[in-house]
Design a protein that fits this description.
The protein is of the alpha/beta class and 259 residues long. Helix content is 39%, strand content 17%. The protein contains eleven helices and eight strands. Helix 1 packs across helix 10.
Length: 259
């Protein structure tokens, strides 16, 4: 059975799309079958992040009944599978947001996980995407406006019967000017499942049209995403560099007759 997880936020600009594509990439690298769907139809960014801003078939075509969901699926060079939405304003005409749930459910049984990139805010577009999910992960930045808006998203999800599985705090500088993880958790009354540091490599990855987990796998942000991905599937996260170092020391100890 496919699990549907909505990546949501109360406000824009917190890194929700980056979180969706990097969690998807990290999960794919762990051998999981994942699809990232861009359900932010008014301001879609998944394709833009990955260098496929224009595609022959988009989610919009599926919602208009012109194409099947499999026709709108593409694979990035990183191995991540995505279903992008159209960036064309004209494509928004006659879109029935109520059909989003049906489009999402068409993926049931075809993949292991679907990560749904939800529009920011509390509009019909966001509600339709959240209602399509089994649970949501809420992305915030460590400041009061973001956390306050996230409270509304959590309440919205609760009101439509969708569980908030946890909160990811993104773009953490640890400069003493931010809300602490403890404070964010207390305000939102939901567990913090990941802390993603501010990382200049994110801008470099965006320029390269790659997920940072793919282009800069050892960066601070990448390691943060990998830890969340492991938690999502109940796996134990082990840093590959740590494994190599451990292997080296084990080999050395054996040569010295100490292991």
């Amino acid at each position: 059975m496919t699990k549907f997880i909505a990546i949501a936020s109360g406000k824009g600009g917190v890194g929700k799309t980056s979180t969706a594509i990097n969690l998807g990439t990290a999960l794919s690298q762990m051998g999981r079958h994942v699809v990232v769907m861009d359900a932010n139809l008014t301001t879609p960014n998944v394709g833009i992040h990955l260098g496929v801003s224009k595609v022959p078939v988009s989610l919009n075509d599926v919602l208009r009944g012109k194409k099947s969901i499999s026709d709108a699926a593409y694979e990035h060079s990183s191995g991540l599978k995505i279903i992008p939405a159209s960036i064309s304003m004209e494509e928004l005409a006659h879109i029935n947001y109520d059909k989003l749930t049906d489009a999402v459910l068409d993926l049931d049984g075809k993949t292991e996980l679907v990560l749904i990139d939800v529009a920011a805010g509390l509009g019909k577009e966001a509600i339709s995407a959240i209602k399509s999910a089994d649970e949501i992960l809420v992305v915030v930045t460590p400041d009061m406006p973001s956390v306050t808006d996230a409270l509304k998203t959590i309440k919205l999800a609760h009101d439509v019967g969708i569980k908030t599985a946890g909160v990811i705090i993104n773009r953490v500088r640890d400069d003493g000017l931010e809300l602490s993880a403890k404070n964010v958790e207390a305000l939102l009354e939901r567990p913090i499942v990941g802390i993603i540091p501010e990382d200049d490599n994110m801008r470099k990855a965006l320029k390269q049209k790659h997920p940072i987990v793919f282009s800069h796998p050892e960066s601070k942000a990448s390691l943060g995403y990998k830890k969340v991905a492991a938690l999502m599937v109940g796996a134990k996260y082990e840093h590959s560099a740590s494994k190599k170092q451990e292997s080296f020391f084990n080999s050395l100890l054996k040569k010295l007759g100490l292991a």
